[in-house]
Design goal:
Oligomer: single chain
Number of helices: 8
Order of helices and strands: HEHEHEEHEHEHEHHE
Shape: globular
Number of domains: 2
Distance between the termini: 37 Å
CATH architecture of the largest domain: 3-Layer(aba) Sandwich
Strand content: 15-25%
Bound molecules: S-adenosylmethionine
């Protein structure tokens, strides 16, 4: 799929509008970049050089091929690595970006650890699963606490960002089309192909069932949770 998580080009551009002072010399990191859906949007709408990092070599290979196809290979470089052990220097970046991936390290831990790689005055912009309401039905509460144990409400996440040493610049929710049109609908055909390719494989069946259940839960409970873009400036 073009994206491996909810999002859209419009939302990436909207978040970029809050980031000041990027120039041709700026250095940007895109952590948990996947195959680079948002990386290419960033490269086409922001100045500077982007290092995109993901754990999976197959995704990075695709990302580098796409960058080449779009003529962005001099400004976009995909590398394999882990977001909790970054191969970068202290204060190397003007901007750290991460869509749909910070839960893999943990919101608080990621904000604290990644801050060391940002210059003073640099920005962080991440999307993260968040509660929209103070309370929610037990079924969805349990599902998300199992998936992302530290999931919290928007105000709580902003205070974590502030405590980690960032000035919160903006927080806004991602619209439903980011989940439905760009994530759940494109999954359907790929799920069928994957099941066909692995007919009778119980692990694959359980995996696809989990993904389908996630989509059903979203349509039932989407007023209670979603992704939120959190943008902060290092002080
Ligand atoms: C939900 S996907 C989002 C991908 C992409 N940013 C997007 O929005 O389409 C999460 C990504 O995080 C990557 N990931 C998971 N754990 C990671 C780690 N420890 N270090 C780097 N990337 C990781 C996965 O390989 C996956 O590409």
């Amino acid at each position: 799929m073009e994206r491996q998580g909810p999002g859209s080009a419009e939302v990436t551009i909207k978040a970029l509008d809050f980031i000041g002072n990027l120039s041709e010399k700026s250095r940007i990191a895109d952590l948990g970049c996947g195959t680079g859906g948002q990386t290419m949007v960033l490269a086409q709408n922001a100045k500077g050089h982007i290092t995109a990092l993901d754990l999976f070599a197959g995704s990075i290979e695709k990302l580098n091929i796409t960058a080449e196809k779009l003529g962005l290979q001099n400004r976009v470089k995909g590398i394999v690595g882990s977001m909790d052990n970054l191969p970068f220097q202290n204060a190397e970046f003007d901007l750290i970006w991460s869509e749909g991936a910070i839960a893999n390290i943990g919101f608080e831990k990621g904000l604290n650890y990644w801050k060391g790689f940002l210059k003073k005055g640099g920005y962080i912009a991440v999307t993260y699963e968040s509660w929209f309401t103070g309370e929610r039905p037990a079924e969805i509460e349990k599902w998300w606490v199992d998936a992302v144990p530290e999931i919290g409400a928007i105000g709580h996440n902003i205070s974590i960002m502030q405590k980690a040493g960032y000035v919160p610049v903006a927080a806004f929710t991602l619209s439903e089309n980011c989940w439905i049109d760009n994530y759940f609908i494109p999954q359907k055909a790929r799920q069928e192909e994957f099941l066909k390719k692995h007919t009778g494989d119980k692990t694959v069946e359980v995996f696809i069932e989990y993904m389908r259940h996630e989509a059903e839960l979203y349509s039932k409970y989407k007023q209670y949770y979603g992704y939120v873009f959190y943008i902060g400036k290092k002080i």
